[in-house]
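User: I'm curious whether this sequence folds into something compact or stays loose and floppy. Could you predict its structure so I can see for myself?
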Amino acid sequence: MKRLAKRLRPMLAASFVLFGASVAHSDEVTKWNAILETTVAATPHFLQSRSAAIVHLAVFEAVNGIVGDYEPYLGSIDAPPWSSPEAATVAAAHRALVALHPEAAATLNAHRADSLAAIPGGQSKDAGIAAGEAAADAVLALRANDGWNVVVPYTPIISPGYWRPTPPDFRPAAFVGWAEVAPFAIEDGPRFRVNPPPAIHTGKYAKDYEEVRALGGVDSALRPMDRADVARFYAAVLPMPLWPAVARQASAAQGKTLSENARDFAWLTMAVADGLIASMNMKYHYSYWRPVTAIRDGALDGNAATVPDESWESFVFTPPYPTYPGNHATAAGAARAVLEQVYGRAGHDITLTSQAVPGVVLHYTSWKQITDDIDDARIYGGVHFRFDQEAGAHLGRQVGTYVVKSTLGTVHGR
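Assistant: Here's the prediction. I'll summarize afterward.
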């Protein structure tokens, strides 16, 4: 029990607000993205990703229905060109968030009043509000029966190589139905399915098994402090708050317009949401065991190169669903594909901190540096094999690239 006390406690149901460098330039899109982040912080990260995509698609449809810079997502919003896109942004984000999170209505109403008070009154403001509310209603209607709350039964297979509930509290399989949620942009999750994980008798499996066994255990003496820091950070900071937070910093640095931000954040949140749907589809398709189960049962895998440890524990909490591919890696690959397209590969100045991990400050100049740290975090944290991260990155890159290439394209001549 002494070793168990060292374990980081579960972070599955909560994410925490991220703070970066001070933002010198912001608009209503990025402002309401930050409001979204705090509004959804206490909900599971799958629900966070769904809310974020719905809100930002509503904002995009509202703004684009006025400005017309890009191909629409739905195409049902036709607002006068003199409408206020700022008012449309506020109204769309507010209406969608209140519908999705009615428990926060009072706070959201106050934010709406503050935002609208800064916009001059008149027909332009009124028309913008009407466009925003119509856009939110249209996207909410589209997603009303998308399967987010469908309960799907799951019975673990008790055999080497297959997932089963993991210590310390042996929770049952979670979010099984998320594999069947309707995606926002990709045609379906299985379309992007990557190859199966390595068989447990292979050399590749043994190599990655040994890496996580040596580096990811709660008492590992081989884990450097900086890798312990990223393991703790990315156990607490999940994909939805992470990627929009870094995008806000990049947007401010590059002075993006309201219309650009509306499209860019819609792309980003769709890519992350669809990446997680596709990843969960694969997880429950392959039902591959987590490192903690594999290492404790290392004597049963038929692989002479794996060293068992019946008391091994992961450094951070192991989520209650199969390991392959990594969700964090998939979301990271999807986000990176979008962010590199929108802001460029490198030359950035990104600073990340979190109230959940006091004292840890992370600095980045490229998106690859962040995704590399996430890969290390899940291995040094003991919750994934290296091949989980490789597969997730590949899957996410496919999803993010598809989102950018197939949705919300620029209208030629504008």
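Summary: Residues 49 and 181 are 12 Å apart (CA to CA). The first helix runs from residue 2 to 5.
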